[in-house]
Amino acid sequence: MTAPGLHVFALPGMGEVRPGDDLVALVLATGVELLHGDILVVTSKIVSKAEGRYVQAADREAAITAETVRLVASRTHDGHTMRIVENRLGMVAAAAGVDASNTPDGWVLLLPEDPDRSARALAAGLRAATGAEVGVLLSDTLGRPWREGQTDVAIGGGGVHMVADLRGTTDQAGKVLSVTTPCVADELAAAADLVKGKASGNPVAVVRGRGDLVGPLDLPGASSIVRGADRDLFWLGTAEALDQGYRDGYAAARAELSPPEQKDAT
Amino acid sequence: MTAPGLHVFALPGMGEVRPGDDLVALVLATGVELLHGDILVVTSKIVSKAEGRYVQAADREAAITAETVRLVASRTHDGHTMRIVENRLGMVAAAAGVDASNTPDGWVLLLPEDPDRSARALAAGLRAATGAEVGVLLSDTLGRPWREGQTDVAIGGGGVHMVADLRGTTDQAGKVLSVTTPCVADELAAAADLVKGKASGNPVAVVRGRGDLVGPLDLPGASSIVRGADRDLFWLGTAEALDQGYRDGYAAARAELSPPEQKDAT
């Protein structure tokens, strides 16, 4: 780095990842020299591949259902229904995160079984092998309400602070930044996507220059940045909530207004 | 840069921005040498300051109302109501983007009047002054559903591609990436936030290494990545939609079930 700041670069030559592959060995085989404070952002798909999380494409809809805890919203377009769901990790994601891109023909991939555990294991392995205290994030590509396009976010974390908690610190004018908690993990994943690219086949990037965000392996993982439905203002899609409210309001009015004999009949 | 990839660095020494200030001159006064393809990510707040978009803090709630096109969701906590609204720019944002941090005591700041226009003007000025084809993004900090913390996104753009349209391109396995349109503008804003910081007073960062995303000044701006309510599955908060549905369902059942004489009475 010739100036202070952040340096973000992809690891070329990772090659195709196969079930059972050792990702620590694959990363080190690229010849990258990892430094203290480096943060590796690893496309979660290669972790899924190493973990053998393949499902036959014919079973894709069943796989999405199996990964789904709760339907949040859906839209049918040209006969195809797109489901946005809360998956078993608590994440709200289209198709529960089940992915058909960059997979062999006829197969789809589930998300890693436990992305935080996988990220911690990879960070631990790289720390042991290199002696450098590095952090690891697993990334996935998500759409979002209100804005077009997708961005990469962190779905697993090992040895990296997820959120830079500024509550209680002051701004330049001396005022307390009371509600500002930048989700640095998602910002790191986004920065990494700018050098990995979707089509280029470079599934791992290194972010160098924010070593202050690297810490012990038992730091909270990316599950800590998933907001539970009970604390979210958008826990159900608008159309679904309008429908549910309508049914409830209709039933309440019926119960109030129907004569007793009619009530018995319903 | 000693290796390929992205270099992201803040411009130190920008100083406080005052109404009427020339941002082109302030950026150049830092001594930064801008290169062809550099993307400057400018915290929208300093553009608001240069444009004199101050409103007295006592009028904050009225200012939010004035900037609001439509209430999307609200939550009352400890007697304070937080409003998530669609603002006049189409953006869905808490408090309509009206901001009280990093402002002089007693004042709040509105968003720039037309962030895309401001970004284009800044890009045009920097191109004219330096001869380097640079792009400009204006950034703001937004919360999002389902995930904790905030990330920086692009709310204005001049001479930068907002979305890398991969539709029709193929992945490593030769499959068409049919639905992948990474919002690179938001990813660039996120990357820049990692070097600017909220409390450090470095409101401008340069992202170097994605010159392929820089283009003519008449490229679509950040307004193009705002998704209209008519195409969004979360255009109204869940509680608000449940309430609205309930009222509609209740009224429909009443209309159906009430005897004629009772209908007249309501």
Automatic annotation (TrEMBL), chains A, B:
Q: Name one Pfam family in it.
A: F420_ligase
Any single GO molecular-function term of the entry would be: coenzyme F420-0:L-glutamate ligase activity
The entry's keywords: GTP-binding, Ligase, Magnesium, Manganese, Metal-binding, Nucleotide-binding, Potassium
EC?
6.3.2.31
Matches recorded under Gene3D superfamilies: CofE-like, CofE-like domain
Q: What is this enzyme's class at the first EC digit?
A: ligase
InterPro entries tied to this protein: F420-0_g-glutamyl_ligase, F420-0_gamma-glut_ligase-dom
Which residue ranges does the record assign to the Coenzyme F420:L-glutamate ligase-like domain?
A: 14-209
Q: Which PANTHER family match?
A: COENZYME F420:L-GLUTAMATE LIGASE, PTHR47917
Q: What is this protein called?
A: Coenzyme F420-0:L-glutamate ligase
